[in-house]
Amino acid sequence: MLSVTHGVWNKQKQHLTFCCVSSLIAASIKMTHTLSHTLLNPLKIGNQTIENRMALAPMAGLGHIALRQLISEFGGHGLLFTGMCSAKALPTENPKISKVFQWRKEELPWLVCQIFGSEPDTMACAAERIEKENFFGVDLNFGCSVAAICKKGCGAQLLKDPDLSYRIVKRVRESVTLPVFVKFRTGWTDSPQFAVDMAKRFEDAGADALTFHPRVAPDRRTRSPKWEIITSVRQAVDIPVFGNGNLFEEKDGIKMLEMTGCHGLSIGRMAVARPWLFAQWTQNFIPPDDIYYTTARRITQILLDHYDDFFAVKFFKKFSPYFCANFKFGHDMLKQLVRAQTMDDIKNNLDMIFEKIPQTLMRPNQNLFL
Predict the structure, then answer these.
(1) Please, what's the b/e burial string for 222-253 (b: 16 or more CB within 10 A of its CB; e: otherwise)?
(2) One of 85, 125, 144, 262 is an active-site residue; which one?
(3) For this structure, is 19 an active site residue?
(4) Global pTM?
(5) Which of 79, 183, 192, 209 lies 20 to 30 A from 53 at CA?
């Protein structure tokens, strides 16, 4: 009698487990459908229209040609942004040798070139080169808070001079017809009204779209972004606003869209950690069990397709902290990867690491999100 009861309990337990898993899968599919339904609505930006509102965020040192190709191979993305290009260097930059100002011809219809600088004429000349190369748009960086950039009077430092910021956007707008984007932060103090005022200035100067990261410039990522400020910025302007900051899971994307009313999502660090995220959120892509290993191995090959071994290693090491943030023991994994001196070393280390499947995390370890 005991064994029969035990057998019935096991069957009931298995049934309950199956039902729970099925419910989770069904909930995930429903969530993806809800999110993709919103993100796959056309959006007019300046004189162009995009069919997908999920964008790779403008980043420094990470939005290079290899990462963009990897994301494109998974698909599901809308706009892609290059890494930060110097406006001073760009008018004469040679894409055949540049490590930043380079692209694949097939990505130009949805590629926005990100530039940094502090002089209106210099930024305008760079924008003219970008338009000549047939990019989708140009992005003006008023958000980078790295000391080396701010010391040059560029990036987030420009938010300390609203008049100069306005003149830069206006001068660029007068120089080109392609869409002009501006990425910016809350400012140097925690003032939502300042962010609203800057958004209005950018719109008045001729910006076609904004990417807004609701953190103050001195705060890299020590505190959570204040999404409610995205709401204020969105309500203050008539041009599209892309929300940025702590978008890790589909439920985060849904919450940001519902809470802020922003027009689209700008994905930064998570696009590096999980390049298939765009396909997952807009095309119901279900990552296979070996997705992390195959993705890491794939980017090693793409890097070597575009760079020599030295720079391929350098860019892989920039990729590594974000990739390793996916795992429970990511710090130990990162130590193994950054010890590598060649791409062959990196490939061998990846093979050893994934001999046994590492335990993954639902939400990444933010201590590795530098």
Answers:
(1) eeebbbebbbbbbebbebbbbbbbbbbbbebb
(2) 144
(3) no
(4) 0.90
(5) 192
